[in-house]
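Before the break, one more example. Copy the sequence into your notebook; we will annotate it together after we see the structure.
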Amino acid sequence: MTGPVATLERVGFVLVAACLGVIQLSIFAGQSVLFSAAALVWLVVIWRDRRWPATPSFFVPLAIYGGLTLVSAALSIDHLASFIDSRQLVLWLMVPIVARLARGGRATTTIDVVIAIGSAGALIGIVQYAALGYDHLNARPRGLLSHYMTYSGVLMLVTCAAIARLLFHPREWIWPAVAVPALLVALAVTFSRSAWVGTFLAVSCLLFLRNWRLVLVAPVVVVLAFLVAPPDLKARARSMFDPQDASRRDRAAMLEVGAAIVRDHPVFGVGPEMVERVYPRYRPPSAVNPTNPHLHNVPVQIAAERGLLALGVWLWFVAVAIRELLHQVRHGPAPAVAGAGLAAVVGMLGAGLLEYNFGDSEFLMLFLGLITLPFAAAAAPREGNGA
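Here is what the structure looks like once it is written out:
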């Protein structure tokens, strides 16, 4: 294909790659500017295609989950606030946009852009920790993003992508090998235990898939890292196993709150953005904080906010994504890209037991892009698409 259509597709691809890279640095530039522009290009492209755009099979349960979110918002105690919060569903378009505009070799190029910009973001966090006073729990590195939890979640996804690139595309190993140490150090100094757990599980999964014997590497690296870590990071790591840790006790209380909300609102939940409103009503005496914006656990948050039906559909989405991504790792044309997508799901699930990362826009955009890129890589690129 040549002419204006090919040019339009190239522009769309550049916008998609830039969006998934820049979202690690700025939500305004990544979402409001680049994502919006990519969506407009995509609309023109599919209009010229004259057919429904192809999407990965996991997009069906994801779309149904979005529909149930709107039903929950309609039944919420504050419809307007819930519908405003539901605007995040627009980000679901990342799936068909990436699937259409990053086909063939462009998927691998997009991963490279994500890793390169993520490495730059990691260096910013390291400088913040080492020289700018972001070196304790009340002031943690956050890169150029607004919150340290968002930063650590994004770092987790990029770290997984870089390690997948290193394991499954060894012919070009030098620059991912350079990027991985910076990403790991930046991730460590965020003090974010949920991201540590998610990264450990995701990397262990990648090592197992590459060669089951390599899975022994992960705990060895963790032990060595602990031995050389500064005292503040050692204390933070040990706190994961301390039953008296304040955040651990508060998370246990949040699980109680979530269970109580689900008992009272089992089908459609209390509505998007409503957990914080009702939290004081359900807060147990063991809770540390008087309220919380969310329940720091993805499945529990979804069940309380949107109901058990939405949770079941979300679990369907996760199961389909894992099944298809495993197939792409084993039989697809770009196992490194597929490995990055699979690791993103495993990392999201692991970290999501301690943090509501699925509700974070920057994290969600990068996550949806990474799990879609393997299917874009497997799609036959059209003539003139380039790679």
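Residues 4-241+296-378 form one domain. Residues 106-131 form the longest helix (26 residues). Try to locate both features in your own notes.
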